[in-house]
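Worked Example 4.2. Consider the chain below.
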Amino acid sequence: MNTTLDRLPALPLIANDPYFSIWLPGDTLTSAQPVHWSGAPKHLDGHITIDGKEYVFLGQSSRPSMQTKALHVTPTRTVSVMEAGGVELTVTFWSPALPDDPDALSTPITFMDHSLVSTDGREHKVTLRFFASAALCYDGAAQPPLQGGSFSCGPLRMAFIGRSQQRVLGHSGDHITMDWGYLYMASEDSVELEPDGLRFSAEAIVGSSPAKGFLMLGYDDVASVQYFGSCCKAWGLRDGKTLPQALSEFARRHNDFYAACAALDEKVLSEARAVGGEDYAIIASAAWRHTFAAHKLIATPEGEMCFLSKENDSNGCIGTVDVSYPSVPLFLKFCPELVNALCRPVLRFASLPVWQQDFAPHDVGRYPYATGQVYAARSPLPNGAVPLPFYLYPAGADVYDIRYQMPVEECGNMLIMLEAAASFGAKEDLIRCYAPLLEKWARYLDTHGEDPGEQLCTDDFAGHLARNVNLSAKAIVGIACYARILRRLGKRDEADRWEKRAKTMAADWLDRAKTPDATALTFDGTGWSMKYNLVWDAVLGLDLLPRDFYDRETRSYLPRINEFGLPLDSRADYTKSDWQVWSASMAPDRAVFRQLIAPLAHYLRSSPSRVPFSDWYDTKTGRYVAFIARSVQGGVYMPLLLPERSAE
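Applying the procedure from the previous section yields the following structure tokens:
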């Protein structure tokens, strides 16, 4: 039997939000037990009985497993084709992660479809069973007291389970799983509540015509995020909509949703293959649900969309500016209004009295509390503890330690994201509303960005760095974007002055950054680094540096590539997946682009680290260093923003 597998470090099963995120760390559905992205066991298992003999189709067991014939991962679907006892079973885990339907995108529901067909020309009596553990409802290994129920809702059977004592929004931090709310299962077949979870079963006589069905897993978190004092729900569950109502709606729309997902997959993968072949297609497939599942899209009390990332496997921050920045290419391409939704909470916090800095903040809290920046706060915040309500503090409270801020980084990020969003079709309301704040950040870049002092940048794991050439490049791009913003505001003379300033800075940057083969790590001429921040010059047509610079710079990376990728810079062998793709996207030569992304695809196909697509890993061993299931993987969609690439 020929087997075809799309091999990834971990397979997405449920990928809806930072809590409802379950992965299988193996090559096939029967090679490992499902876990939360953080590695916490979250038991899901599937069994099939064929003519009285039982097999496993999901999870590991002492019982025989079905043989995997094919496994494919697309942006929206994980499809496994298995066979045993004369029956072929196709199982598809999928979510309507549709960027043009924010209601569906943000509703925490995942489908598991099944299709059964005879492979030997005989009829077979089949029973399919699936179990979801109540461990999805609580944090930690010890099972707390649980309660649940079941009921019919039209043609659907529904069952739910959760903690007996509900402490909604009862914790904050990283490597913490859901600890409140209710897990739901729904199907037209049998769904039952058990003491430790929810069980689905379906019976069929399977012949030459496929026997099909589906179940849905959903999560009612009751309240998703505490947003500056208000408990907010997911966008798709706003205005009083309940999860049972959403499950009923999703069941009715199953076929339409599936067709929309299939069409989206075809569109995304055809564009990806046109740009970078199968290597880029696997990168794009690995990043889609992964990226959306690292966010929570909520409705603010004002009825606006707010898209909040979580720093998974990092520090747990919510709405981190330098995590949003690398993620935006996916959203710019497919749903630019989500970039505004990323910026909205940051602009709100930066306008409060407690934030007196003349630069942009780093974050707006720690998940699921968007109650004010926690990074560099003087008050210690143990993992699990709820953050202080910094948004209520008055001016002069001296909450933050300036040494651990990222001033140039975050000012540049915000200006670039807002202009890029408008450039790709998002509304300009935020630009107009917060124009004085944006001017303050542009002036900070003008004063401090040309040759930055010792500062942290988004690559803060590498430590402080003075005279950072790549950080200076971000300042230049940020100023150029601010000039574009002024032009949108009708301030042409000011826009001309700022544009001239950006181009003068760029010419000076090129002269000071040059080394014999490319550009340096720091302005004293030492080392080298990826200059990923300059990719916006091509994406937005800023006309800052000549094309031959990008050809020379990207070619200089080729001899520095290790087996699994290009190192971030000359200081270490580790790299960042998002920055590799951004740097590759700067290459005018298609062959250079493909050489730069090929090791990343190789990493996905062969990394020994069985964790969801890590963005920080070692280029020599292929092992992840840290950072799991983070939103930054949206950055791998950068090549699709380049007009000449998309048209090829």
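Residues 254-293 form the longest helix (40 residues). The chain has a mean pLDDT of 97. Compare this with Example 4.1 before moving on.
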